[in-house]
Design a protein that fits this description.
2 copies of one chain form a homodimer. Chain A is mostly helical. Helix content of chain A is about 65%, strand content about 0%. The first copy, chain A, binds a DNA duplex through α3.
Chain lengths: ~200, ~200
DNA sequence: ATTTTTTTGTAGCGACCACTATAAAAAATC
DNA sequence: GATTTTTTATAGTGGTCGCTACAAAAAAAT
């Protein structure tokens, strides 16, 4: 194994870090929503000009897709984090709601959930479809997990959890702080346990 | 009382009905959000040209304000409707949630609540401020009513109700139908009763 | 050193944004 | 009928939108 070092690509090297650019775009889209962040601002913030932007990401929606994937693959995927720590359905859902209350207040204006609210009211059908697909994925994961204990009522119970998360995301975007969200999360958790135990 | 008939205003008569125009604008803003509806489309749908538009409403945000007031003054103000029928706190909140489940699926694409979601992710600070003021008004009404029975826990209980409504509005905008919303509303109602009765 | 490939910056595309200057049309008052 | 007042339609303002044509610059391969 001498020549494992892959040869450099042929042309001029990129002058910016793609992952870093996706991270910055993710933050901007999260803070103000898809439509409110223009390509000009993205380019300025990322330090790249339009041709480099389109060579790297294809389109504004292409960058949004990368940002959504990065978001769902990181610590913002609160259900995945709650699930990873193990436990029964009630425990994991309680953890999920608590993580939402901790994460959704955000910082630097990045409140709520990018997947749930990033493309809300967007005029671009492509952005709407991307966010919608990410939502379906997350909701299906919650539903399937709940179904392991309550297959009959999984749909209703998942709806309760998802509506709670959407409501908390919206409230956070409207300025609700961590204390208020934690209070709501605790009540939502009690509601979920009650419904799960077969009210 | 002979001359009670007020004299006609002096100039040329308006060729369109202002209230009807506000109604149409309300429907458009409700369906797609503030930013996604342009002045050109509004003018076309209302059958009026830009100068008439600005003479009547001052600005796009001015028309949005009229639409918000009309919305909050009508049957879309579900808490006011629930309150008008009387009853104790638990009864009125249950009615509010049930009305949300009935109203939020909407028709012709007008899903969710215009006040809660009409200016979400808007790039216009004026539209955001108008929607925010309407939200505060509605939330304060819920809080003050709950305070008549539970003054200590009114803030937390109102947060529970408002987060439930925001979540149901978001879910409706994402396509949730009436059956699903009613199931969620019933669970939220049980949660509220449990918290009100002092868990 | 020349060729080839990729990224870069400059400049600008047509389309749409909210909004307005101007003057003609339609009504009441004189 | 002439004057005054308001609304109308035509046309266009500067600005921003997402996106692209073009050629110079920077790298590897020859």
């Amino acid at each position: 194994m001498v020549a494992t070092k892959k040869s450099e690509p042929r042309g001029r090297r990129r002058s910016f870090d793609v992952d870093e650019a996706v991270e910055t775009a993710m933050r901007l889209f999260h803070a103000r929503g898809y439509d409110a962040v223009g390509v000009a601002e993205l380019g300025a913030e990322l330090g790249i000009k339009p041709p480099s932007f389109y060579a790297a990401f294809g389109s504004k929606a292409g960058l949004f897709e990368r940002a959504l994937r990065r978001y769902a693959a990181g610590e913002a995927n609160i259900f995945a984090r709650a699930l990873a720590e193990g436990g029964d359905v009630a425990t994991v859902i309680a953890r999920t709601l608590a993580l939402a209350a901790a994460l959704y207040p955000g910082q630097n204006g990045t409140a709520g959930c990018l997947v749930l609210d990033g493309a809300r009211n967007s005029a671009d059908p492509e952005a709407q479809a991307l966010a919608d697909a990410a939502k379906r994925e997350g909701c299906a994961a919650v539903r399937d997990f709940i179904a392991t204990e309550a297959p009959d009522r999984a749909d209703a119970l998942a709806d309760l959890v998802v509506v709670a998360m959407m409501g908390m995301s919206a409230a956070a975007r409207d300025g609700a702080d961590r204390d208020r969200l934690e209070r709501v999360a605790a009540m939502m958790d009690r509601a979920f346990r009650r419904e799960l135990s077969g009210a």
